[in-house]
User: Which sequence fits this backbone?
């Protein structure tokens, strides 16, 4: 090290020593000036000992995973025309090239964590390619309705390639596509009735709807709904492209203003026609979707629930990605077994409450224990602190002081409550409860569905040690593994805590046990209805009725739950990840903690600090299982599951 660098280093160390020496004094002054309402306790406790932080990244491959993530983010920003020709080609080439480079590494020279990251990254890349294949199959299905899509999306590709725009040629393209769009739209509009001149206006529903034109493409409601959403996406891309040039290029504006406006109107009318005439969305709802400019039916809280099932092949691809060697039918059987346990326990609680085996009657009693309007935030706060205290008393997992201090609370809007009828959580907890402008029916539904006993079983699911603690740890340990996030890790872990606290007597009253079992039955039902939906064996309406009949949902809450499951904002296996991930962790706990290979705290901290990944890989890491480039032996976790623990007072 050169002399001037050594001198600067000595000065820096001296300043650091002085700062550390001054800490007790400045800390004491800060304590004297702490305002009322400031976080309690010693602020020093929220800063960990830094000698425990200054360690090398445990994985040899962490820098490579970080590089992949950064490169992928760069390409996603660069190729921002969703499903455009250039984007499809580039993202497939990107994933394929990364697999090639990854295979060049000497797998045996990587340390254990590096080998785990190798398997995780390769698994991620294979799944990306499988999803691109799935997207291509969907594109082929919608192509008869969208023969113009690639031509319009290529405009944005050309802009991103920095090609000089030709306003005259671009105007011709938009004019030609507008005629094509209008021609496609008329195929789905009613044939004019005899004696009535001209076709009916788009969006007009006659008293007796005539037969559609014979040569219109024959597609399912699902494909038509997907095509309408794709039209909205194309409109958004064309708008971005147009606004880049408009006003900055005088000749562009001169040529393009009218063609762009007319095309935008044509695309809007065509998407609305598909939704009304083929999908069956009411005109008023279709109009609201159109006004949202690209929100699509997925974002609507009204109208029919359509969804987009991925089929048995898609489920197999996604289960392979999650490293789960079970068929959908086997997973449904596991869920049915878990449901049977919950139902048996629910009847026990119902008998304790004086309802005999009428568990729905007991649930009605529990639902009607809701707190008065305005008091729900206080309830959530108190339940969160109660759970943290319960964990403190048992030393099951590390909850750092800052993780107790930094979570926040906000309220869900009435509109969001239609698709998220229960509170949500993570960095903050979002409370679902009535507002003054909601109807009386919606108010009662919200209060009943978020009663204190239902909330008792799930506030910790959202906060500590659930989603909030997960996010806290992901940002501080193995943060590169956020790329491998999966609902089987994050939702499964929160659901695991629900089962864990049941086993350890957290729900002392029969009412609290009813609340806990409501959610446990709900998670079993999610596996059953979501897998059956994607296999084409259950419709959304049947899923709603299934939740009402088997879990005791309020119908409005059941509709919100099913709408949320199938509106496209969640991956196909997301709803199965809760209980299946929880059961995987339960089986792993049995292998390690029950076998006295790890303590409770060691196990739970290791899961959190290892970062998100399929639970089978968590097992491989914690049990030091041998890995190869191709992964590891299949784990039939249900074979290692301990039996569910029936309620016994005084546990």
Assistant:
């Amino acid at each position: 090290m050169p002399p001037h660098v050594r001198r600067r280093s000595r000065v820096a160390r001296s300043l650091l020593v002085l700062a550390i020496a001054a800490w007790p004094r400045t800390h004491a002054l800060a304590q004297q000036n702490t305002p009322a309402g400031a976080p309690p306790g010693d602020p020093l406790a929220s800063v960990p000992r830094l000698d425990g932080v200054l360690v090398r990244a445990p994985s040899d491959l962490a820098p490579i995973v970080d590089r992949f993530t950064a490169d992928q983010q760069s390409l996603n920003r660069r190729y921002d025309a969703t499903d455009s020709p250039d984007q499809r080609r580039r993202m497939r080439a990107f994933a394929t090239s990364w697999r090639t480079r990854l295979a060049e590494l000497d797998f045996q020279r990587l340390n254990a964590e590096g080998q785990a990251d190798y398997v995780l990254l390769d698994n991620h890349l294979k799944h990306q390619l499988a999803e691109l294949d799935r997207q291509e199959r969907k594109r082929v299905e919608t192509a008869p309705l969208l023969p113009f899509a690639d031509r319009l999306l290529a405009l944005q590709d050309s802009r991103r390639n920095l090609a000089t725009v030709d306003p005259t040629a671009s105007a011709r393209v938009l004019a030609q596509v507008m005629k094509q769009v209008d021609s496609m739209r008329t195929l789905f509009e009613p044939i004019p009735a005899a004696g009535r001149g001209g076709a009916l206006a788009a969006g007009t529903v006659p008293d007796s709807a005539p037969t559609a034109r014979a040569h219109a493409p024959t597609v399912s409601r699902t494909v038509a709904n997907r095509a309408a959403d794709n039209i909205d996406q194309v409109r958004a891309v064309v708008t971005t492209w147009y606004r880049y040039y408009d006003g900055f290029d005088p000749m562009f504006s001169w040529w393009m203003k009218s063609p762009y406006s007319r095309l935008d109107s044509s695309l809007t009318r065509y998407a609305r026609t598909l939704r009304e005439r083929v999908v069956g969305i009411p005109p008023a709802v279709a109009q609201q979707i159109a006004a949202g400019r690209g929100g699509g039916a997925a974002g609507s809280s009204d109208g029919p629930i359509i969804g987009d099932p991925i089929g048995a092949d898609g489920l197999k691809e996604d289960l392979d990605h999650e490293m789960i060697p079970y068929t959908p039918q086997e997973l449904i059987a596991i869920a049915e077994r878990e449901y049977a346990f919950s139902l048996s326990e629910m009847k026990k609680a119902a008998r304790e409450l004086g309802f005999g085996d009428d568990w729905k009657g007991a649930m009605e009693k529990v639902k009607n224990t809701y707190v008065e309007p305005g008091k729900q935030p206080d309830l959530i706060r108190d339940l969160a602190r109660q759970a943290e205290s319960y964990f403190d008393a048992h030393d099951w997992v590390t909850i750092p002081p800052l993780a107790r201090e930094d979570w926040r609370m906000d309220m869900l809007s009435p509109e969001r409550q239609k698709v998220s009828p229960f509170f949500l959580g993570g960095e903050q907890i979002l409370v679902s409860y009535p507002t003054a402008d909601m109807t009386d029916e919606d108010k009662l539904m919200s209060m009943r569905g978020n009663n204190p006993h239902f909330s008792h079983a799930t506030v910790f699911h959202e906060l500590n040690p659930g989603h909030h603690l997960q996010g806290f740890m992901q940002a501080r340990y193995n943060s590169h593994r956020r790329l491998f996030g999966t609902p089987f890790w994050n939702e499964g872990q929160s659901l695991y805590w629900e089962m864990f606290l049941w086993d350890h007597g957290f729900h002392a009253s029969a009412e609290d046990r009813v609340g806990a079992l409501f959610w446990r039955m709900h998670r079993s039902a999610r596996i059953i209805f979501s897998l059956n939906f994607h296999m084409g064996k259950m419709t959304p309406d049947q899923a709603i009725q299934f939740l009402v009949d088997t879990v005791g949902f309020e119908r409005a809450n059941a509709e919100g739950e099913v709408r949320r499951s199938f509106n496209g904002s969640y991956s196909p296996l997301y709803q199965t990840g809760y209980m299946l991930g929880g059961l995987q962790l339960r089986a792993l706990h049995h292998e390690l903690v029950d076998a006295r290979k790890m303590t409770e705290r060691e196990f739970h901290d290791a899961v959190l600090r290892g970062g998100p990944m399929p639970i089978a890989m968590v097992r491989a890491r914690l049990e030091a299982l041998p890995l190869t480039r191709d992964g590891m032996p299949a784990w039939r976790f249900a074979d290692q599951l301990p039996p569910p623990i029936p309620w016994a007072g005084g546990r």
